[in-house]
Amino acid sequence: MATQSSTEITEGRAVLGIELGSTRIKAVLIGPDHRVLATGGHTWENQLVDKLWTYSLEDVRAGLREAYGQVAATVRDEHGVELTRLAGLGVSAMMHGYLALDADDELLVPFRTWRNTNTGEAVEQLSAALDFNVPHRWSIAHLHQAVLDREEHLPRLATATTLAGYVHHALSGEHVLGVGDASGVFPIDSSTGTYDADRLATAQRVLAGAGFAGQLTDVLPRVLPAGEVAGHLTEAGARLLDPSGALQAGAPLCPPEGDAGTGMVATGSVAPRTGNVSAGTSIFAMVVLEGPLSQVHRELDLVTTPAGDPVAMVHCNNGASELNAWAGLFKQFAAAAGSPLDDAGVFRTLFEASLDGAADGGGMLAYNYLSGEPITDLEEGRPLFLRTPGSPFDLSTFMRTQIYAAFATLRIGMDVLTAEGVRLDRMFAHGGVFGTKGVAQRHLAAAIDTPVSVGDVAAEGGAWGIAVLAAFTAARAASGEAGEAAEQRDLATYLDEAVFADAQLETLDPDAGDVAGFDAYLRRYVAALPVERAAVEHS
Predict the structure, then answer these.
(1) Which of 172, 312, 327, 444 makes a 20 to 30 Å CA pair with 195?
(2) CA dihedral over 486, 492, 493, 495, signed as positive or negative
(3) Tens digits of per-residue pLDDT, 508-532?
């Protein structure tokens, strides 16, 4: 007997979202009510090749096939039908970086990810010329650095795009970007919804002066806001996802987005005075602004929501990777002691222990810098733990210190926003680090002195967020075809009314003792940064 879910799938009313994260490629199939019907995934890792962080595009293709294949298998096993049609499709990925393609869409140099910080000279020149903080990881910084380094691929450069843009093109044949992802490529003018024209002209002069013969307006993908149809799934795209031939071409695609934008969508944080924190390999906060900031700040990226509204982004290269490494070490110890624990058990045990740790870290300090960290002016990183000779050395405080380390650099950037007078009504948090109920949530609330909400709305993270954006595009397209102008809601209204109206969220207010403790910890953290720099210089 057909169920509601199986009928939705066979009638082609389900929507697929795919997100290429730093450690996992994930696919999520949702129904018309945005409920998750099936998920799939593929684990992958970046590689350090010739001193640059990269992923192979063969891994991209293999990961897409595996993630989609698991979704299709779940549909078959749990819903009893074949997945053959989609109402919509969306692709999201790690923002920034540099994917250089020639006129035949062939890769010219290995994909350079957001994690690379080799763009210092380009950042300095562009930030000064544009009167805008251009971060190390932005696509325009990578392009200009390639020009300054006289890289031989530049005469053949036809398109410079992001990972989401690359995969979107592979599925649709269209070189476009969602405005949120594009805001990590080049500064956006929120009044026009595309690249800032004056700054584009200035950047063209700067690059030409350094020897670049191309035109930025030709090289950069065109920009679209949330809700626009950004192409349709081609036959080649369908075969990329599903070599079996079952998946039909033709589904509309939403504009490809970055993980920052899908994090905003997945937490319903697209309106002014709302924000979200996404914690993974990197950690970043997105704060939707009420108006412009008074000046340029090196610690802040100015990006946009998927609808094009201005956002201040505090991006930290180093997030939960060092926490994961310590958890792996304790997992090995538990197994060696004859009491093995799975990953969930290890994290639960360690995180819950942190609640009993000294609020100020008890004289312990940790730096989670596996890579460079621009906010603290470090081009390279060394994971580091240290303590004063007289400090206690207990598991609870040690783990609190490690979790604090994941939030410390984020807090440094958030302090800049506070000084600008930016205020938040709520901060949503998502990512695996928040999986142990009430722990990282409590420590983050202390770090930023703001109520922090978590909930099952972001359980599937950015893959669900891009699926929601694809559903938004499909709904607008359908209502436009039917002449139902009332259905042409903006993104914030769509999220409030159609997605999060019945969402169950848990909010923790900051504890005064924890806030004071984190402040004390951060003062020691900042004061001891020369120790981290010395570790980089001498090891």
Answers:
(1) 172
(2) positive
(3) 999 999 999 999 999 999 999 999 9
